[in-house]
Design brief:
Helix content is 28%, strand content 17%. By secondary structure, the protein is α/β, with parallel strands linked by helices. The radius of gyration is 21 Å and the shape is globular.
């Protein structure tokens, strides 16, 4: 896929990182090669690049002054031109189940949220890729606030570093899920730059990218030598209903989406996860489970059922009863699909799936919908 095609989907080509207000260049988010380029005129020895790189991504320093492997004089000279720009953690809210929601304020005043979820021996960090979302999915609070800018690679990585600075002694590993604010495949280049750095220490098997089905982005992702696991935000097995729930389906309908997914190479035993938010009286009927089973190739698919997490901005949309959820799951299983129900986490602090928002600006509201409840 050409760069022009990616741009047409709303993604951004690789650009020089933005500078902070004082015009110093932020080093966070730069690859080792790019660091070498921008620091070449300022370092006295080539090995200093590796020292800076390790300080940024292994030690997770928040300022140049913390890079103590460099002399004080060299740090002062670098600080004339560069900065380690990390978003401010404006607030933390901890759920009764141990889930922590972070509110980050970015340099331009935009806000994003990320969620740290303890999950047995591991912790799962739900990361944002955009400061808002243009897709306006009818069940997602983020879409109610509307589009926001793409996050830079450094702003994506900074969310991971901020969570890792908060120790969780009960856990011994980290999973990343790009299921926070925004559509990751509309920020493809910055996403790829961030993943290349993160995957140096976090296995691709521990990283999942959730997308509403941006077909050109999926086609590009399929060519990457290393890629995260895929989760597809599906929520309906027919175009008319998916059009109403997810307006992006009007541009990339199910036929095109399923064809793009069929071309994505998978490792042995790897499956694509299909996320399906169950909405009472909308997409939870037995015949809709049958249609979903007919749509998905069982040998390449896993279905993650997510009972809707209500929010006032979603109007009358409601979650089905537990009995109805179990019946939907069991019908999928009877048709040979691997199907699970996602456990609700962090809902008491609005940190559950679909509840993240952009409180720094007024809401846009949802696009007009024919959805009948």
């Amino acid at each position: 896929m050409s760069q022009a095609e990616v741009s047409q989907t709303g993604g951004s080509q690789t650009e020089a990182p933005r500078t902070v207000a004082d015009d110093r260049l932020s080093l966070l988010g730069l690859s080792r090669a790019r660091l070498g380029e921008v620091l070449a005129l300022h370092l006295d020895r080539a090995f200093r690049v590796d020292q800076v790189y390790r300080a940024l991504y292994e030690q997770k320093v928040a300022s140049l002054d913390e890079i103590t492997t460099l002399s004080k004089e060299l740090r002062a000279r670098l600080a004339e031109h560069f900065v380690v720009d990390t978003p401010e953690v404006e607030s933390e809210h901890e759920s009764a189940d141990g889930t922590v929601k972070y509110l980050f304020r970015l340099r331009d005043g935009a806000t994003i949220e990320a969620v740290d979820i303890p999950d047995g021996e591991r912790r799962t960090l739900c990361v944002s890729s955009q400061a808002g979302c243009a897709l306006a999915c009818r069940f997602c609070v983020t879409g109610f606030w509307g589009a926001g800018r793409n996050l830079e690679a450094g702003e994506i990585i900074a969310q991971v570093h901020a969570a890792e600075r908060r120790p969780r002694p009960e856990t011994h590993g980290l999973n990343l899920v790009f299921m926070g604010m925004g559509e990751p495949l509309l920020n493809l280049e910055n996403l790829r730059d961030a993943l290349e750095i993160l995957m140096e220490r976090i296995s691709w098997r521990r990283i999942t990218l959730s997308t509403a089905g941006i077909v050109p982005g999926l086609e590009a992702l399929a060519t990457w030598p290393r890629r995260p696991r895929l989760a597809i935000s599906l929520h309906a097995a027919d175009d008319p209903l998916r059009d109403e729930l997810m307006p992006i389906n009007r541009k990339y309908p199910l036929r095109e989406l399923m064809a793009a997914l069929a071309a994505v190479p998978l490792a042995p035993k790897e499956r694509i996860t299909f996320e399906y938010i169950l909405i009472d009286g909308v997409n939870d009927a037995p015949e809709q489970a049958e249609a979903l089973a007919a749509l998905l190739p069982a040998e390449r698919s896993k279905v993650n059922l997510i009972p809707l997490n209500p929010d006032p901005v979603l109007g009358d949309l409601a979650r089905p009863s537990a009995t109805r959820v179990d019946a939907f799951r069991d019908r999928l299983r009877s048709r040979g699909l691997l199907a699970t129900v996602r456990r609700q986490r962090g809902d008491d602090v609005s940190a559950a799936c679909g509840q993240l928002r952009a409180p720094s600006r007024a809401p846009r509201g949802f696009r007009r919908s024919n959805l009948s409840l």
